Amino acid sequence: MAQGIGVYPGQSNVYVKDHASTGYLITQFSRNPKDFPLNRYVQYRDVSKDAGYYLKLNVEQAGRLVGGELDEYVWPDSADRPRRNNGTEKFNWADYRTERYDFDFTLGYKTRDQAGWNLQDAELANHAQQAMTARTKRIHKTLETAGNWDSSHIKDVTTITGNTGRWDVSTTAAADIKRSINYGVDIIRKDTLAVVKNKKDMVLVMNPKTAQKIGECQEMTQAFIQSVEARPMFEGDENIYNTYGIPNKLYGIDVVVEDTVMVTSRRDDTTPTKSDVCADGVVYLLSRPGGLTSKANSGPSYSTLMLFTYEDMTVETLDDTNNRRIEGHVVDDTAEQLVAPVSGFRFENVIA
After folding, report:
1. How far, in Å, CA of 267 to CA of 121, rounded?
2. Mean pLDDT of all residues in 216-244
């Protein structure tokens, strides 16, 4: 019979280590899907079919005055009523098709039952976060595709008339950030015939690196140092500034820092590779009037981004008694569309 190696009793070897000694402490960084920034700048629309159409109406006829004159609309007394036979507006049917995704794991009964914590719930939480991270990635792939935007709604900030350079080197005198935002808001106002013009219905979306660099530029710091906001800025008052040092509201528009992180390496790679889902150096000015969910038959939508949800993150556990194991699944069946690109704007080359 094999003999163990004898040791003298000591303070660290006279008991068997167990989980109870820490009060069953669990460290897990699992983010609630409801806490993802995505929910602040995307509007959801439940759909009954996984493919279909939505109606896009051209906005121009509602404000058309050819040549800026009214002659063709004059109706003199006793004359025939004007008939131009062209008073209607163009429309088109745009299609969507949802894609179904499944984020899964498998646990044997023995593994589940012998774990010193609720392993099944922990894995479900992990995979719900994975599904929401993937949803965020799909949204930003849609935003990053230049062909989804009207060409006049994408602009390198260094080429905006009056700007001296990028946002991260702007000063209070240059005011390049303020000028850029005003430029984007004005383009949206004109192209929507002033239907979308209220800054309270808009958000600025950027990643943490971009937010940090903007928060450090002189246009921001000089302005606040010279104001009553100086002390809250240095103290990091979260009622005024977000975690990344940029005001929660910038020139009248709410700021959303999209801080979702994705791991792009495989599970057992020696060095995990992590990156922000939202790209560096780009800021999106997006409209999302109303709430998170767009109700059916609720009238026209002016939201820039729409997430069509055929199945909204269904959590399932399948009990495979024959093989004595549990399958866990988080299913998401959605389509991501830039349904109203004229109500948004994409600023490029914002930081170095």
Report:
1. 20
2. 70
Report the predicted TM-score, pTM, of the whole model to 2 decimal places: 0.84
Distances (CA, A) of 22 to 17, 19, 97, 200: 10, 6, 50, 48
Cα 31 to Cα 330: distance, rounded to the nearest angstrom? 15
> φ and ψ at 25, to 5 degrees?
-65, 135
Whole-number Å distance between alpha carbons of 219 and 163 = 13
| Nearest of 205, 227, 224, 228 to residue 216 by alpha carbon | 224
By the 8 A CB rule, do 238 and 223 touch?
Answer: no
| Range in 20-24, 79-83, 200-204 the model is least confident about | 20-24
Tell me the CB-side half-sphere exposure of residue 242, using CA atoms within 13 A. Answer: 22
pLDDT computed for residue 4 by the predictor: 61
Task: Report the alpha-carbon distance of residue 345 to residue 249 in Å, rounded.
Answer: 17
Model confidence at 298, pLDDT cuts 50, 70, 90, reads low
